[in-house]
Amino acid sequence: MSDTDTQYDDPFQRYSYRSSLIEELRNTGGRMQRGRVTVRTARTFGFCWGVDRAVAMVRDALRDYPDRRIWLLDQIIHNPQVNADFKDMGVRFVRGPFADASASEGDGSSQLSADDVVVIPAFSATVEDTEQLEGIGCTILDTTCPWVVRPHLRTIKYVEDGFTTVIHGLVQHEETRASCSLIASRGGQYLVVADQGEAERLCRVIRGELDAGDYLDSLAAGACSADFDPTEHLTRIGTINQTTMLASETREIEALIREAVAARDPAVEIAESFRELNTICRATQENQDSVVALAESGELDLLVVVGGFDSSNTRNLTRVGGGCFPSFHVLGPDAIEAGVIRHRCAKTGNTVSTDNWLPEGPISVGFTAGASTPDTLLGDVVEAVLRAAGERVDAAPSVS
Ligand code: SF4
């Protein structure tokens, strides 16, 4: 494993991408007045400790291995700017959107050698990937977040006890793929449900209201283990969740499955056939709670959420933060102009433009950012919004 021994063990220290503007906002309780604009930030936002640590570990690897090729298995985190920055620094990508165009079919694993250093991202990696790297003899720098290890340990216990793991997660997300791979490697069964609607369909199968074969046919590719049989493998169920899902939805899903199992097995102690473990990470939970508190303050005219469009936790911040006022999920400052804002539509996932998004007169704009969003990027977005409103970050507060 890694011979980089740097520790990043202070959760209150920001190790990378520091922004003086954002630090000022943190030091002033998340409130700043610039002309007609009141800038508000959630109590906690942005880089979580796990992401900050992973980014800092890659940066250290560039310093510690100046004569060796450094590879990332895929994106280090779901933020285009951070990945592009590493690419500019000479880091190569085995696969994914930042993979070298010369890599065959987007997979550069055939180019790896024992002299290379390969970084496992904070989301973790599949068992197959890890075994391949070990087989090649690469130096592996494992930045897997400790919060991701927790559901992994629970799934191993489920497999040992004969429980099928139901994962509240996204089939294509690296963390969920790693969990599925781990379960399969131990001979266990898994099923991935993305949201409450999918959980309700699962519950209909558990209660015998939906044909098991039809249900199996309807599942997305990769959503269940290779030999998953609903008639056989839903007898005992244990739940976990991808660490960045919406916490309230995870609780709903757990409750739905528990009730369905209890309805099916009224004579059996529930613990015999159902177990649960909420594995939302603390940083994700705190960012969600903070944006809810900000939204409920009653002070906001609109909310701007900053982060990668494929970042699960950022998308969920938009879901919990949106309410009685417009909520815009943007990639960065380029999305913002005085007359138009380009943002991700939560319903379709497409990038859309909204005109006349900034109200006239005094306005209060809330900001938050996903766990993979650097402070520098959030700071640039705050400045862009101020410019769009005709204000400057160094302007004096208005007197009203
Ligand atoms: S969001 Fe949570 S689980 Fe993911 S890297 Fe950050 S702290 Fe770890």
Q: Which percent band covers the strand fraction? A: 15-25%
CATH architecture of the largest domain: 3-Layer(aba) Sandwich
- Parts with pLDDT < 50 across at least 5 consecutive residues: 1-6, 396-400
Using the coordinates shown, work out and report the CATH topology of the largest domain: Cobalt-precorrin-4 Transmethylase, domain 1
Tally of DSSP β-strands:
15
Bound compounds = iron/sulfur cluster
Tags for this model:
single chain, 400 residues, Cobalt-precorrin-4 Transmethylase, domain 1, 5-stranded mixed sheet, 14 helices, binds iron/sulfur cluster
Description:
The structure is a single chain. The chain is α/β, with parallel strands linked by helices and 400 residues long. It folds into three domains: 20-48 and 282-388, Cobalt-precorrin-4 Transmethylase, domain 1, CATH 3.40.1010; 49-145, Rossmann fold; 147-276, 4-hydroxy-3-methylbut-2-enyl diphosphate reductase, catalytic domain (Cobalt-precorrin-4 Transmethylase, domain 1), CATH 3.40.1010.20. Helices cover 38% and strands 16% of the residues. It has helices at residues 20-27, 49-64, 80-88, 127-136, 146-160, 174-185, 196-206, 212-218, 230-233, 247-264, 270-273, 282-295, 312-321, 375-388, and strands at residues 31-34, 37-41, 70-72, 92-93, 117-120, 139-142, 164-168, 190-193, 237-241, 274-276, 302-306, 327-330, 340-344, 351-355, 363-369. A five-stranded mixed sheet has the order 1-2-15-11-12, sandwiched between helices. Strand 1 and strand 2 form a beta hairpin. Helix 5 packs parallel to helix 6, helix 7 (196-206) runs parallel beside helix 10 and helix 12 (282-295) runs parallel beside helix 13 (312-321). The longest helix is centred in the middle third of the chain and has 18 residues, at 247-264.
